[in-house]
């Protein structure tokens, strides 16, 4: 069959390009009420009073909720987060009230009539502020919060929400013995996910106690679990459905609006309430991506062999911890980048500030982590006068090596960084990294950076698939992974089509995910859908084939082992003319006489990640994911040394894809990742005023890469060393285009300007400023 | 979108628009004139004082007109910036108007809307601040008045409540005699607010006049700056530096750029333009 490796258009593409695709906001039920978050416009304060009288008095207002209506704490890992601010406001934009009204206009008017009385507190406006000995505390009770999902180590009476460490070998000793040492400090701001569809959730509580939630989420089963937990319901009472999602990037893996929508519906007798973030609220009140300050020290021999790494990462996680402890551990586990370093010590601190809280962001911490390592690698290459690609080649992790957490690397779980480096050279036209003038004041330069990433998933992540056969022999596929643009559904359909030896057009896949009817998939995150869903689908396909064969064996009077299948038929291996079609068997077989046997063919499949464990809290040792995806990226720029403006000419990625299931989708994912990473590296930043004011809550001020501002060329190639335990050998690649491209840009510009650019975003002003401050 | 109900009017005569505005105001409502709507609509989402009535002026023939009237070139305030650029009747206006926002937005944004924008930039107005003779046509309760631009705009607009701009006019001969450069400098993107838009014209006597958008809270032209820029005894770089030192207000310091960087960019752009104009 030809489903695997074919450019199958996405199943949902026709509806998307004609504007007919349905997203959460497009679902309307009569009688819907509209809720709106009232954000605090102060970053740190005691919340003395919330006066809702005027808002309640407005005609059309059905309810106004405050922190008193939600007396519990939420949190994925650390339960530190009141759904609506209580006693204290911890960030500019924090929801202090929730208005529910008959329409959006009334809700908007009412929101302006909610009056808060604050007692301002000193603002923790940076990581540096947070770590000062006399720093005001964002959470006074940090030591006594419930840890919902260990591990996490909040430090009492501090702004440290969590810390994770990894130690391998003797880093201090090895560093002293190194021929050269480079040190780099990098500084990256928080960033917004900037999904095209702002977050939205709808909740309804039926008379029989069932709760219906529709939401734009990457984690419907997590929503189900947490809503049940917070409101003391049976999980089965809570039905969560997720239609197409208009972009997510990790920002929709967190549970926030669903809890508020439930509270709102509860306050109005269970009526349907839609809570849709306006863009401004989506940016300042819902979680963003974390900021980072990091110190990297690398030791190496004169020949460019890495000997030691000492790393310190400080994450600006904002006001609430959310996924930060998981991200901190992911950073710790991969802290060296894809390089063999025998002596490593890394400390990762998740730091509370009075900034908007953060959650997962495409790459799960690996993008900022990679920036730090890859800037240091380029500094080392400069210092040693070694070609930066050669330096990376010399140190590339290989099968037989061990990761910083001492996980063992194999050809299957690692792939080949070395091959990707060799493939990158002709792809980008690698010139060794030396900048060269092309006109007066015009300098061209290339920069490279490598990455690796694994899933950092919980060791009990699970996924399922259900296949039902239609009367004509076509099949329906039900999985728990959400479609947010990554092609997860289409990929699953291709895998099923291949396994059942039918065309992809004969596979009908549930577009939405519904926790009532679709089997559980942990969360649609970590680029794991192809791996986990794919394995479950293969398992379900085997079940279908087994059922087809056993039924056909009865009818054809042979053993199931005598049968093979293809062309939607089950046939006798040595005489294919003796056969039955899938349609003959789909709903049970009916003999010519009329009597029938069997029943509908219903295949079920499941998959659970194996052999993972939580990292040891002392040493950090453990196995954080089933496999790593490795790759290398490059950027070519042209820099004007008078204006400090630059143009993006080329961006390239070569990664070890294991096996490419859908080349067009894979290329699109990687190109999209590069576009996002270049936008982040060149222009994006959440910015705060001197009192923690959130300044960038619109695209007027939060700039993303626009069409027309992209490089002249995006180049993508794959090498294919299969991951043996993955469907058809395919490795995860959904997030990876974003990981090192920003570092590659910084490396190119550092070379072009002959300065160390260790800060993002790299605007011409930043270069100008740095040039001006240069000694 | 505007999430609340509004009353929408589309008068087809300027006098009706004025009457309507007065009536609505007297009735205690808060009407606004409406042309392209890009500001009214996008700002509505965060507006705590919602507009109740929109008076769309695009039905008024004079406001959509353009062409030549004796020695004058004129443009109706209701022409979209894309249309203004397409007409290309005055190249410096074309160059400047064509760099506002993106093309999709320029199909909506009007000349009048841009000139009277609540944003500081008002780029399309800058070319009109440079010639000796620029007139505007204003609909007032005393009737249509044609007055010099600087009578009604000196950094801020002086229009009485209810008055509106119908058209802008320049002398054809003067307009055509000016050699120009119009450069929009942004933080990084092609489509963004200007750190500064510098529009410079040189008249047949070699005198240079420069208009700036983005430097301050309003577009500005300074006769002192123009005199310094016109001093051919100094190098372009020295003239640009002197002009920057003589700017009537310090540069803005905001999210898009620091004061120091905006100053650097403006000075660099000025020097570049003078070199180009005099080469």
Number of strands of chain B: 12
Strand tally of chain A is: 32
Strand order of the largest sheet of chain A: 3-6-1-14-11-12-13-23
CATH architecture of the largest domain in chain A: 2-Layer Sandwich
Enumerate the strands of the largest sheet of chain B in spatial order, edge to edge or round the barrel.
4-5-8-6-7
Distance between the termini of chain A: 65 Å
Shape of chain A: globular
Write out key terms for the chains shown.
heterodimer; A: 775 residues; alpha+beta; Aldehyde Oxidoreductase, domain 3; Aldehyde Oxidoreductase, domain 4; five-stranded mixed β-sheet; 26% helix; B: alpha+beta; four-stranded antiparallel β-sheet; 12 strands
Characterize the structure shown.
Chain A is of the alpha+beta class and 775 residues long. Chain A folds into three domains: 13-123 and 195-248 and 252-284, Aldehyde oxidase/xanthine dehydrogenase, a/b hammerhead (Aldehyde Oxidoreductase, domain 3, Alpha-Beta Complex), CATH 3.90.1170.50; 291-457 and 613-773, Aldehyde oxidase/xanthine dehydrogenase, molybdopterin binding domain (Aldehyde Oxidoreductase, domain 4), CATH 3.30.365; 462-608, Aldehyde Oxidoreductase, domain 4 (2-Layer Sandwich). Chain A is built from 19 helices and 32 strands. In chain A, strands 3-6-1-14-11-12-13-23 form an eight-stranded mixed beta sheet. In chain A, α10 (366-384) packs parallel to α18, α14 runs parallel beside α15 and α17 (663-682) crosses α18 (741-753). In chain A, 59% of the residues are buried. The model of chain A has no long low-confidence stretch (mean pLDDT 96). Chain B has helices at residues 14-26, 38-44, 81-87, 91-97, 103-106, 111-115, 149-152, 172-177, 223-229, 236-245, 259-278, and strands spanning 7-9, 31-34, 53-56, 66-69, 72-76, 134-140, 143-148, 164-171, 179-185, 196-202, 208-213, 220-221. In chain B, β2, α2 (38-44) and β3 form a beta-alpha-beta unit. In chain B, α3 runs antiparallel to α4 (91-97), α9 packs antiparallel against α10 and α10 runs antiparallel to α11 (259-278). Chain B is globular and about 60 Å long. Chain B starts with 6 loop residues before the first strand and ends with a helix. The model of chain B has no long low-confidence stretch (mean pLDDT 95). The chains are: A alpha+beta (775), B alpha+beta (279). The interface between A and B is medium-sized, with 28 and 22 residues.
């Amino acid at each position: 069959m030809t489903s695997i490796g074919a450019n199958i258009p996405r199943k949902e593409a026709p509806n998307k390009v004609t504007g007919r695709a349905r997203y959460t906001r497009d679902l309307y039920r009569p009688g819907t009420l509209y809720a709106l978050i009232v954000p605090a416009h102060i970053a740190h304060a005691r919340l003395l009073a919330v006066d809702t009288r005027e808002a309640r008095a407005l005609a059309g207002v059905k309810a106004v909720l405050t922190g008193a209506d939600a007396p519990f704490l939420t949190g994925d890992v650390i339960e530190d987060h009141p759904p609506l601010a209580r006693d204290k406001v911890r960030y500019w934009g924090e929801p202090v009230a929730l208005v529910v009204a008959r329409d959006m206009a009334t809700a908007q008017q009412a929101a302006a009539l909610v009056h808060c009385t604050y007692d301002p507190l000193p603002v923790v406006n940076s990581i540096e502020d947070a770590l000062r000995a006399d720093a005001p505390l964002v959470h006074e009770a940090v030591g006594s919060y419930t840890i919902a999902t260990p591990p996490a180590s909040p430090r009492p009476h501090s702004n440290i929400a969590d810390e994770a460490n990894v130690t391998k070998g003797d880093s201090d000793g090895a560093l002293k013995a190194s021929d050269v040492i480079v040190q780099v400090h990098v500084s990256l701001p928080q960033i917004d996910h900037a999904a095209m569809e702002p977050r939205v959730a709808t909740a309804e509580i039926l008379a029989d106690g069932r709760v219906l939630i529709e939401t734009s989420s990457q984690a419907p089963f997590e929503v189900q679990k947490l809503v049940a937990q917070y409101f003391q319901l049976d999980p089965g009472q809570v039905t969560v459905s997720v239609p197409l999602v208009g972009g997510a990037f990790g920002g929709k893996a967190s549970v926030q609006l669903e809890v508020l929508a439930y509270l709102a519906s509860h306050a109005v007798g269970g009526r349907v309430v839609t809570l849709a973030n306006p863009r401004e609220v989506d940016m300042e009140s819902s979680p963003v991506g974390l900021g980072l300050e990091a110190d990297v020290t690398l030791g190496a021999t004169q020949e460019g062999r890495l000997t030691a790494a000492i790393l310190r990462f400080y994450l600006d996680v904002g006001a609430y911890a959310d996924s930060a402890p998981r991200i901190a551990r992911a950073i710790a586990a991969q802290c060296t980048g894809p390089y063999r370093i025998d002596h490593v010590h890394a400390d990762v601190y998740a730091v509370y500030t009075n900034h908007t809280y953060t959650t997962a962001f495409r790459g799960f911490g690996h993008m900022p982590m990679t920036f730090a390592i890859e800037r240091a690698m380029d500094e080392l290459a400069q210092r040693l006068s070694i070609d930066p690609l050669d330096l990376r080649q010399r140190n590339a992790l290989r099968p037989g090596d061990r990761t910083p957490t001492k996980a063992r690397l194999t050809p299957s779980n690692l792939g080949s960084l070395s091959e990707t480096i060799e493939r990158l050279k002709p792809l980008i036209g690698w010139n060794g990294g030396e900048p060269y003038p092309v006109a007066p004041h015009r300098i061209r330069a290339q920069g490279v950076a490598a990455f690796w990433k694994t899933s950092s998933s919980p060791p009990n992540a699970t996924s399922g698939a259900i296949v039902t056969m239609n009367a004509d022999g076509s099949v329906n596929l039900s999985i728990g992974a959400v479609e947010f643009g990554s092609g997860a559904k289409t990929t699953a359909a291709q895998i099923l089509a291949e396994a059942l030896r039918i065309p992809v057009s004969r596979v009908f896949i549930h577009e939405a995910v519904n926790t009532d009817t679709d089997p559980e998939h942990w969360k649609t995150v970590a680029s794991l859908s192809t791996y986990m869903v794919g394995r479950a689908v293969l398992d379900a396909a085997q079940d279908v084939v087994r059922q087809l064969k056993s039924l056909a064996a009865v009818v054809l009077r042979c053993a199931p082992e005598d049968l093979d299948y293809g062309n939607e038929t089950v046939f006798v291996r040595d005489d294919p003319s003796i056969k039955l079609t899938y349609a003959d068997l789909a709903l049970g077989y009916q003999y010519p006489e009329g009597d029938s046997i069997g029943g509908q063919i219903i295949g079920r499949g499941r998959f659970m990640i194996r052999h993972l464990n939580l990292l040891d809290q002392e040493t950090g040792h453990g196995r954080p994911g089933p496999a790593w995806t490795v790759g290398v990226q490059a950027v070519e720029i042209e820099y004007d040394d008078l204006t400090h403006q630059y143009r993006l000419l080329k961006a390239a990625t070569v990664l070890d894809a294991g096996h490419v299931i859908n080349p067009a989708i894979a290329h699109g994912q990687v190109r999209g990742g590069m576009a996002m990473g270049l936008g982040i590296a060149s222009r994006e930043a959440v910015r705060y005023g001197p009192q923690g004011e959130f300044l960038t809550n619109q695209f007027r001020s939060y700039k993303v890469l626009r069409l027309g501002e992209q490089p002249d060329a995006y180049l993508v190639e794959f090498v294919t060393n299969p991951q043996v335990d993955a469907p058809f050998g395919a490795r995860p690649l959904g997030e990876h285009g974003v990981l090192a491209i920003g570092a590659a840009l910084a490396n190119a510009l550092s070379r072009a300007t002959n300065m160390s650019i260790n800060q993002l975003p790299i605007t011409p002003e930043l270069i100008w400023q740095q040039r001006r401050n240069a000694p | 979108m505007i999430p609340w109900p509004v009353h929408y009017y589309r008068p087809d005569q300027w006098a009706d628009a004025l009457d309507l505005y007065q009536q609505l105001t007297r009735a205690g409502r808060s009407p606004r004139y409406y042309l392209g709507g890009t500001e009214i609509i996008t700002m509505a989402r965060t507006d705590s004082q919602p507009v109740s009535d929109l008076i769309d002026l695009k039905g008024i023939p004079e406001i959509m007109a353009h062409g030549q009237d004796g020695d004058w070139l004129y443009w109706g305030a209701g022409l979209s910036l894309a249309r203004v650029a397409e007409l290309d009747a005055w190249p410096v206006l074309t160059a400047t108007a064509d760099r506002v926002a993106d093309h999709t937005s320029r199909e909506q944004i009007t000349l009048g809307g841009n000139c009277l924008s609540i944003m500081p930039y008002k780029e399309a107005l800058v070319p009109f601040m440079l010639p000796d003779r620029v007139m505007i046509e204003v609909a007032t309760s005393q009737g249509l008045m044609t007055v010099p631009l600087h009578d009604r705009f000196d950094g801020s607009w002086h229009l009485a409540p209810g008055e509106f701009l119908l058209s802008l006019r320049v002398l054809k001969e003067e307009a055509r005699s000016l050699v120009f450069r119009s450069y929009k400098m942004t933080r990084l993107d092609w489509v963004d607010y200007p750190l500064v838009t510098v529009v410079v014209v040189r008249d047949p006597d070699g005198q240079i006049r420069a208009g700036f958008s983005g430097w301050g809270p309003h577009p500005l032209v300074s006769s002192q700056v123009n005199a310094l820029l016109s001093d051919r005894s100094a190098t372009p770089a020295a003239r640009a530096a002197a002009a920057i030192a003589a700017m009537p207000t310090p540069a803005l310091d905001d999210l898009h750029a620091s004061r120091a960087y905006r100053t650097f960019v403006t000075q660099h752009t000025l020097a570049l333009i003078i070199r180009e104009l005099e080469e």
